[in-house]
Amino acid sequence: MACVDFVELATDFLEGALSDNAEWHFIEHLAECGGCERNLDQIRQTIATTGELTPSSISSDARAQLLTAFRDWQRQ
Predict the structure, then answer these.
(1) Local structure of residue 58 (DSSP, 8 states)
(2) How far does the chain reach from its first CA to its final CA, in angstroms?
(3) What is the pLDDT of residues 45-56, one digit of tens each?
(4) CA 32, 35, 40, 42 torsion: positive or negative?
(5) Is the dihedral of CA 53, 55, 57, 59 positive or negative?
(6) Which phi and psi angles does 75 have, rounded to 5°?
(7) Among candidates 41, 53, 3, 42, which has minimal Cα distance to 25?
């Protein structure tokens, strides 16, 4: 498995949505590639951190910046 394929499958892996064969290849790649292991750890940390956010804990400026970034993301 190439790293680019790994990145594409990371969310499905974390959600338990990969087929047994795809999961096997994913885990095999993970065991051999430190970069992808770090990437997966970063995704897990992001999920954990954002799971702690509440609407009231985000400033109105930060909220506006995030909404603008997501709206403009597909245009770029």
Answers:
(1) S
(2) 29
(3) 988 888 877 888
(4) positive
(5) positive
(6) -75, -25
(7) 3
Backbone Cα Rg of the chain: 16
Q: What DSSP designation does 56 have?
A: G
The whole-angstrom separation of Cα 22 and Cα 13 is: 9
CB-based contact 3:36 (threshold 8 Å): yes
| Whether this model's pTM surpasses 0.70 | no
**For residue 27, what are its two tokens?**
């885990």
Q: Helix or strand or coil: residue 52?
A: coil
Q: How many CA atoms lie within 13 A of 69 on its CB side?
A: 6
